[in-house]
Structure formats: structure tokens, C-alpha cells
From TrEMBL:
It comes from Paraburkholderia fungorum. One of its GO terms (cellular component) is membrane. Keywords: Hydrolase. Pfam families: Abhydrolase_6. GO terms for molecular function: hydrolase activity. Residues 24-247 form the AB hydrolase-1 domain. Signal peptide: none annotated. The keyword Hydrolase applies. This is Pimeloyl-ACP methyl ester carboxylesterase. InterPro entries: AB_hydrolase_1, AB_hydrolase_fold, AB_hydrolase_sf.
Amino acid sequence: MINHIRSKDGTSIGYSRTGAGPALVLVHGTTVDRHRWRPVLAAFERHFTVFALDRRGRGDSGDSAEYAIEKEFDDVAALVDATGESAVSVVAHSFGAVAALEAATRTSSVDKLVLYEPPFRLGEPDPETERIVETLRAHIDDQNNEAALATFFSQVLRLPEAEISRLRVLPNWSSRVEIAATIAREMGALQTYRPSATALEKVAVPVLLLLGSASPPKYIEASDYLLSILKTSSRVVLEGQGHGAIDADSALFGREVLSFLLADKR
């Protein structure tokens, strides 16, 4: 069953509610919707009431005429508050990890955070990324979402053509194509987004930073930064993994997440 809440700007945000136990909010990344958690959902449902949202612009969520990354932060905070619980765990991946981190500065109900490779930059905007964003926008303007999605996989995630071909035949390819128009705006927003050390230093809840041992330097740099800023954070390196451990080794990912979330509940 799909439920809905109203975010701060009035946008309808859809989410599923499954399982039983303390509240756990799941926040997915780019090119996917709430179904991206399917590989680990059953494991989480055994211990938690799981709230998996569709980020705005996809699935069962609405959108706004004007996009701003801050609206994504408000969406996550709104769902955390809508659980009705005062101690909510949040697990988030990639772009969703940025939204979850910032949401923790907007609500006092976040109890624990698991952030898997938030992709923010620390320096100046990257010219190569700007070029890719413009290419993505051109594909989207031409209503060629499939080309935009393939560009993201090949030029941003650096997936080999054989892997992209494998993804094309998966059942969720069509849904990814459908929401590919959101890729350019999210990448563009991350080009100028910079985390505020002053704001993040106020995040006093336990934070687990997950990092793949085979992940690119940009994820390592962001993880190093958060480890230095968030005084209650710790890091686990997922050996042999990159940015996609939720799919590549769901057992490893689920085990590390649950070990952290359940540490004081056993």
C-alpha cells in the first residue's frame, strides 16, 4: 500500500510502509525509485517498520514546477516527522545520502544515520561534470531519456558497455528511462551544493559512513570530510565493492547496516 505526505512546499511524496518495529526511513539515489531497496528490504523488515519513499519526480511522488535541492532535504525531513516516532533511523544511498544528511539538520527525530557514498564535491565545480550535465539536458530536451540514462551510466558511473547492456534487459530498465529526466537536475544541483560544516557539526546522532574499497576518489574525499566533521561518525569499508553494493553484495550491505542499527537494541 502506498501512502502520501505533503512536503514543506506542498508536493505529494509517496512512500511504502512495511515490516514491524522501530521506524526506519530509506532514501534512494539517482535513476531509481523506492524499489531499489528490494535486495535488502526483507532483512530490514524483520527488525523495523520500513518507510521507503519515492523521491520527488518519480514513482508515486509528485514534483514542483521549480526544482531546488533543498526541497529534497525537506521531503526526507517531512517523512521522518510523519512516522510519528521520536527516534527514527535513516539509511540512504548516493544523492539520497546528501538529502538524508541535510534532513538531519531539519528535524530532531533522526536517531541514527547510515550514509552510503554521498557524491558531493568540496572544491570548485568540475568542468567535465558540467559538460556531462549539458549533454544530459540536450538528450532530455530531445525527449531521449534512454540516451540520457546511458550517458549517466557510461560517463558518470563509468560502467563498461557490457554492464550497460546487462542493465538494459533488466525489468526496471523502463522505469529508469521514465525518470531519467531527473538526472541532469540532480547532477547540476550537486555541482553547486557544498555542505556547511557549521550546520553539520550540530548533527550529534551516530552516523555510519559506508565506502566501497573500489570506489572512485570523489566518494573517498566526501567520506573523509564527513568523518572529520561529524564527531559521532564511524566508517566501514565494504571490501571489493564500489558504489553498487546494495545489488552486488546485498548480504554484506545488509549485514553492516543492521549491525550498526541494532547495536544498542539487542
